[in-house]
Amino acid sequence: xxxxxxxxxxxxxxxxxxxxxxxxxxxxxxxxxxxxxxxxxxxxxxxxxxxxxxxxxxxxxxxxxxxxxxxxxxxxxxxxxxxxxxxxxxxxxxxxxxxxxxxxxxxxxxxxxxxxxxxxx
Length: 121
Ligand SMILES: [Zn+2]
Known about the structure:
By secondary structure, this protein is mainly α. It is 23% helix and 0% strand. The protein has a domain at 59-111: CATH 4.10.640.10. It is built from four helices and no strands. The chain starts with 58 loop residues before the first helix and ends in a 10-residue tail after the last helix. The structure holds zinc ion. Zinc ion is lined by residues 58, 60-61, 94-95, 97-98. The site of zinc ion has 7 residues, from α1 and α4.
């Protein structure tokens, strides 16, 4: 007689019992894919022209001014911003040579206190 040992007894108590206790009440999962209203904000009229835009011709060339008088404060103030900074050439339209002379004139005028230095807040 040969007894066959049935080793592999099928366990009937398999853990297949679905314990339905996992309720979905664990708070709303925050999805990170939400975009907050992607609306292209078309702002106002794009106007950056704060400074006066006159003709882009060098003022000193047209008026045949060779040496810029540093004593002429009212002339120099047209090329100095409100805070005392020298307005760049692309805004004023002054040519390169005259801008250089203008810069020297403005600095001379600053030295004798005709024009203010760059005012700080
Ligand atoms: Zn010029």
